[in-house]
Amino acid sequence: YPHLREGRVGNKFGKTLQYTTLDRDTNLDLPVIVSLVYCESSVLDHAATEVEMILTSSNRTWVISNSRIEVSVKDAAKRGDLVNVNHSLNGVKNTLKFRLATGSSLELEEFRAVSIKKLLYVWDEVSQSFIKLAGLDKGVSTVELHGYNGFDTHQQFLRQVVYGNNEIIAPVESILKLLLLEIFTPFYIFLIFTLCVWMSENYYYYTVAIIIMTVFGVSSSILQTRTVRECVPVTKTPIPCQAAVMFDSREDAHHTLFCGTKVIQTRTHGSTLVKAVVIRTGYMTAKGSLVRSILYPPPADFKFDQDSYKFIGVLAIIAAMGLIYTVIMKSEKGISPSDIAIKALDIITIVIPPALPAAMTVGKLYAQNRLKALNIFCMNSRVINVCGSINCVCFDKTGTLTEDGLDMWGVIPIESNQFKSPLRDVSQLSLGPLLFGMVSCHSNTIIDNKVSGDPLDIKMFESTRWILEEPEFTDTSRYGIHVCSVVRPPESSLAHNTEVPMEIGIVHQYQFSSTLQRMSVITRVLGTQEFIVFCKGSPEMIISLSLPHTVPPDVLSILENYTEKGYRVIALGMRTLDDLSFSNVEDIKREDVEKQLKFLGLVVLENRLKPETKGVISILRKADINVVMITGDNILTALSVARECGIIQSGEQIIDVSVVDDDSEKVPEVYFTHSGRFKPQEVSSEISNGQMKLLFDKDPESINIPSNYRFALTGKSWQLLKEHFPEVLQRVAVKGVVFARMSSDQKQQLVQEYQELAMCGDGANDCGALKAAHAGISLSEAESSVASPFTSREPNISCVPIVIREGRAALSTSFGIFKFMVAYSLTEFLSAIILYNIESNLSDLEFLFIDICLIVNFAFFYGKTEAYSGPLVKTPPLSSLLSLAPMLSLTLQLLVNILFQGICFHLVRLYPWYHAFNYESLTSYACYENYAVFCVSLFQYITLAVVFSEGAPYRKPIYTNKTLTISLMAMTLISIYITVYPAQWVIRWLELKVAEGYGFRIITVAIGFAGFFLGIFLERFFVKYALLSKFPKLSSGPKIKYEKLKEELVNYTDWPPITSKLPPMLPTPASEIPPELLTEIQFQISNELEGRCIGGVENESFEIDEINITKL
């Protein structure tokens, strides 16, 4: 391009833009290209990230036809402000068609939008609301997708202005920013103030020690912050071109290539090229949704952290009172203002312990290292404490509770409309339709000379020991048509058989649809002229598509028998297409193929539980931890696995929650029905004169609300409850046990309802839920694990009780350290206030000995006490610092300390050798009162360390922490030595004025030990036994929303309103019902069914014991 020009231009925001233009070449009809590069960070002062969807960012290229583009933004734009965009070319307004998340579309010349969490919301004048912008995945028919051939440069530019660049930029925090975020917290800001006060008093020793501990704590936190999915080959096929069918991103996943997909093999018909249509870009893609869920997780505030800040506020009030008292008292004695200011500020630094953040960090780091030793890695040590208060755990099913794959159990063939005995060895199955269906009805393919595809399809095919081949598409000699693949038995060989070999060619595939619950293939056996359809899917669906006289009458009881045992059952059907020609195979509609099937039999697979699953679930249930299953699988399979592993225990009644929405203007209806209410033996069927009769025995069970009930529901019902019945949704979530067919978004919504729980999963579909949970535990080391604070290298759920156990120990440790540090600071504050009365104080080295040799020493080793190895108890540790128990515990210990400090302070004055302290000739703080208060306080700090070091049931006993025990014993001996017989260098160093004789010295040691035993008694007996054991509700603090609602439901004797009437199934579309069945098949329903079944007429369907009989 020879005609480049460069220049600079200013704008109304006072910023400078550098631009490059390309002149139009008159010979070549090229568009003008304008490149804007910002010389400064943003055109706007405050809105760089908020309007990045609208305004060009650095190095973005705009392509326009000619003339100008006009973009205007409000001057004071900030988060949430509206952005107006006008687009005009040559002075003529142009329109742009928007797709919205509701499925509707707008065509506007000017639009108003707001960017929230990387997504754009457009103002809709009709609904008078902002609606999320969508791509081509909403409200678009498959015919429209086939009709797209790209946009001209004008439309490209307009769409780029609206949708932004197709990029996902995840911000990476710099070390400096992480450092500042860690430092500028209330604790560390106060620490800086404290260090300044100490430096002014020349108190350098402890200042240096605190700086070292703080640097250690901050750097550890930053390193933790800075410190991934296995895939299965999937076959993707072109989306059908049908005018009446709307594209659905979930149902049409087999036709969709997702961001990050690696294409490993392509196959095409002749010279036909593949055309792909981009339906989503940037943060609207599946990968973008994952990144957004990580960037913007829902808030997970922890009660302990909230209360710690409130408690610091209480300490600040005490410090303010001490400051006022110090100022008044010292002013009355004529102390200089500068000394008053220093001493008053010093009181604040004594009351609020500056070493608290570092001490808390050390305790969590010990827990993190213990988890690491067990192959559990934690990215954020702050979350470890959260695990201690967890009383609910959600599990994904496949790959988490069960093995990743399925194992073939066997097949149940049919002969003369009767089930034969189950055949465990599928390779022994005789040649016939059932075997042909198993070897051909799949989406397997050959990759690197190995069969690849869905695990279920692979297991089913490999059990037959047949061989899969993929011929070249140019080879049509054997079948007269292109075939996708060919299957043949291992004995068959084209090279050695002179006769026609036994081969089946797969001519066309209809991919599996979760809504249709089936897949099918059109096949042709080599040497024949007819096409045969094999259809595989859920038994209830295949039964509904089969001719009634081909379905065994006891199919329901057989099916129920296997599903209740946790097996996964697949049914097979077939149909011969007599009038289908070669040319029409590709064009025939699915609904014209999948009907009037001959029922062939059942294929039974088992999804085995992982060996550790039952034991872990039992541990959690014994600890009264609510266990919930969230899965994308079928609800019957999920219920079976839940019963097998113990999530659903014997005696618990399962109530199905079904929400029926017929897409009309009526409000959806909610049905609560007993799961398994109609037992298999109560249902029988018979066919007489072309009519199917379903016969029920009389049900003696009355419709009563069981006392121990749990809910089970699907993702569809969850979504409708969320939209129309939010108050019911909360109750269902509290009592829910199995949530099936849940999408990744719905999993995250459920976790947000619970919030204070742990979520354990292994797949990318769990990322949002793992991030939203208070404690997410990933069993995968792949990319998706970045959403979870915990990652286990052991691919089973045995890590869950370990994390909870360590969390409880860490929370108990944090409580103990916090109470110890607060009690130490207040005890030291009491000592200072008592000595301030005589204008004395603790000397710098006395402060240093207490702060370093006692406090920092104990705090450093405090967290080394390991988690309790016994069973998990039903009651988790307290999570509220402001509840009655910790407040009472602190108060009692402080009362003991002030009592015995006061006794020593006054007792020393009674001895004849005592003489008063003269503060006017102040050269040192040494005095008898100083000695008495300092020495007795040494034992009090040791007492506090022992009293607040809790053992079982959350931590091991204190004596198992050898380093802490040795430290306590050593400091006790040193304290006795300082009190009774200190050396002269110790006296000079600490500035002590030791009492004359040994009488008072021994009494001081005795008072110290008396305080120790009294403190132990008050904590162990009065607080732990009398208060916590006898009045648990009084001392447990405020309940979380989940617990409150659970208690309320116990008192609701008339909820849920269980009905004997099962929810109606939506009418089957007439196009999917064979016309001959509508005229020949009638339902005969006895009077005993009245009120128990919706149906009885043509075109309707009904449900029996969770088995949907539809489309008959």
Automatic annotation (TrEMBL):
InterPro entries in alphabetical order: ATPase_P-typ_cation-transptr_N (IPR004014), ATPase_P-typ_cyto_dom_N (IPR023299), ATPase_P-typ_P_site (IPR018303), ATPase_P-typ_TM_dom_sf (IPR023298), HAD-like_sf (IPR036412), HAD_sf (IPR023214), P-type_TPase_V (IPR006544), P_typ_ATPase (IPR001757)
SUPFAM superfamilies for the chain: Calcium ATPase, transmembrane domain M, HAD-like, Metal cation-transporting ATPase, ATP-binding domain N
Gene Ontology cellular component annotations, sorted alphabetically: late endosome membrane
Keywords from the named record: ATP-binding, Endosome, Magnesium, Membrane, Metal-binding, Nucleotide-binding, Phosphoprotein, Translocase, Transmembrane, Transmembrane helix
Record field: transmembrane: 178-198, 204-223, 311-328, 815-835, 847-863, 884-911, 964-987, 999-1023
Membrane association type: Multi-pass membrane protein
Family assignment from sequence similarity: Belongs to the cation transport ATPase (P-type) (TC 3.A.3) family. Type V subfamily.
UniProt protein name: (California timema) hypothetical protein
Organism expressing this protein natively: Timema californicum (California timema)
